[in-house]
Design a protein that fits this description.
Layout (H helix, E strand, L loop, with lengths): L8 H26 L1 H6 L3 H11 L2 H17 L6 H14 L6 H15 L32 E4 L6 H10 L10 H16 L9 E5 L3 E3 L2 E10 L2 E11 L5 E3 L3 E2 H8 L14 H11 L5 H7 L3 H17 L6 E2 L8 E5 L5 E6 L11 H13 L10 E9 L5 H10 L4 E4 L8 E11 L2 E2 H14 L2 H27 L2 E2 L8 E3 L5 E3 L6 E2 L4 E2 L8 H5 L11 E2 L5 H4 L3 H11 L5 H12 L16 H6 L4
Parallel strand pairs: 19-20
Antiparallel strand pairs: 1-2, 2-4, 3-4, 4-5, 5-6, 5-7, 8-9, 9-10, 10-13, 11-13, 12-13, 14-16, 15-18, 16-17
Helix pairs in contact: 1-4, 1-5, 1-6, 4-6, 7-8, 11-12, 15-16, 16-19
The structure holds adenosine-5'-triphosphate.
The site of adenosine-5'-triphosphate has 22 residues, from strand 9 and strand 13.
Amino acid sequence: MFPQRLDSPVAYAIAQAMLDGFDLHYRLFRQESAAAKQRFEQADWHAQQRAQRERIAFYDKRVREAVVRLEQEFQAGKQPMEVWHQAKLHYIGLLINHHQPELAETFFNSVTTKILHRTYFNNDFIFVRPAVSTEFIENEEPAAAPTYRAYYPTRDTLLENIERIVTNFQLRREFDDLRRDAQAVLEAMSARLVGVKLRANFQVQVLSSLFFRNKGAYVVGKLINGFNEVPFALPILHDDQGKLVIDACLFGEDDLQMLFSFARAYFMVDMEIPAAYVQFLRSLMPRKPRGEIYTALGLAKQGKTLFYRDFLYHLKHSSDRFRVAPGIPGMVMLVFDLPSFPYVFKVIKDHFPPQKDTTREQVQAKYLLVKQHDRVGRMADTLEYSVVAFARSRFDDALLDALQREAPSQLEIGDLDGDGHEEVVIKHLYIERRMIPLNIYLAEAFDAIEHGDPAIAAAAREQVEHAVVEYGNAIKDLVAANIFPGDMLWKNFGVTRNGKVVFYDYDEIEYLTDCNFRAVPKARTEEEEMSGEVWYQVGPRDIFPETFAPFLLGNPSVKEVFLRHHADLLDPAFWQTHKERIRAGHVHDVFPYEQDKRFEHHALQGAPA
Ligand SMILES: Nc1ncnc2c1ncn2[C@@H]1O[C@H](COP(=O)(O)OP(=O)(O)OP(=O)(O)O)[C@@H](O)[C@H]1O
């Protein structure tokens, strides 16, 4: 109901207090993101990782504070609906010239849904879709940095322009040899421009803040010529002498997608107008949903909001049914999907079999650990939702049976909103990108090797080799990031669109530094030797890498590839050495691009410190 008059002073005060709460949030978020530059310059990697982790909690803290203030100063929860309607309209008014209106709307939703009891809950009070446009927002302050800078080189001045692009960021640390690196970037860019006529609009556009994550800083931009646009990114790292180097020149949508993958930690970027950053990034990766771009920029709540809007929109424009996800069912999670939609939905079961010695709280804690940890491109990010309603008519009966059997505490079915149609409400669930489970991926390849014609069989053999090598690499990346995956069976990994192998089963995850990697003791007697049982003492965090083989290497072709590339994973010394390195304070290097993309002069120097 649209109020005719805005005559409630308390409504205005509520709107203003709400916006104060958001502005405080964004100021602190931005300060922490901007400080990434200094941490990078000072090579303070532990602080960088800590900040990445802690920043995730900022939003919920500010929402809680805003709720307390609104309750204390305005008894917000007791205000009549008329006042809330007016508060929303005042809020819209206050956002007209705001630089982050979409984030501020989401903040309003978060606070309002906490204050107004869910049963009163009515979409009139929140922003179901944006009320204030995010297009063409500009910062008019004279000293304001633009969202991106444009450079207009010719072929002859491209080198100096590349140098200028980098020096404009004013990093307070010396480059080892910027001219040499700019030359390498020039060569990479020139290779893209061979035989291409440069048009009147030839230019390089570069986002004016660097993107920081872990030990790297990234220049992100695009080359524009005529109607063509080529996205690029330049990773800047510290070399083993502590000098700065440009490590590579990444090009095109696929490279950028890898950099911005859902399986990596969020970037730190100093942004006044995030919507403008998202718009620019979307032009580089048109197929990446805007929600995922917001999330990659650390604005995870906005990512979640947009995901949910996209999801509702997809539901309206599709007619297929939710079903139990293909693959081996989990013991801890009940997983379902909608075939037409590229995500899976995971519900924690009410009871676990005896070999899963865990609780709902512990499982949630593990998922949270993954959210806050550097996911190094090898662990899928999850979105966590509570009280999600789906139309009953879209659920397949087998799935509903499974939910009733396995997770009845999480389920409510009925016409809860009184619209004459039944809903299925799930109390708590995680949503993550759908991948092809690695066991299914391998089984399909084995099938093709056996039954396909020679060309198909040969391709399938390559597929197996690639998947097994990637699987081992995934485990090694996790190890370097201090993660012991716990359950390393093939079914707990998935294959992404780009053929990357990513882990998704988090309930048995541990920090590597908390585990004890041991060799299987030598048998002392013949009985011990012959016994099929484990005869030695095993502590709760004891891991015996030699014992992985029987679970993983049943198939001879898998075994052959695995032993050729990753036999070290079966050696306790491999694990123990990594554990000790991490204990000693070493922060691993993560390259969100293939090693062969690195400029040669750096690859020769070895990995940066
Ligand atoms: N992101 C995903 N994409 C596609 N399928 C998935 C995904 N996540 C889970 N699955 C499917 O659901 C199954 C169970 O998922 P998951 O491994 O997370 O559950 P779990 O209960 O933790 O398993 P476990 O019993 O091994 O501990 C997987 O084997 C796989 O078939």
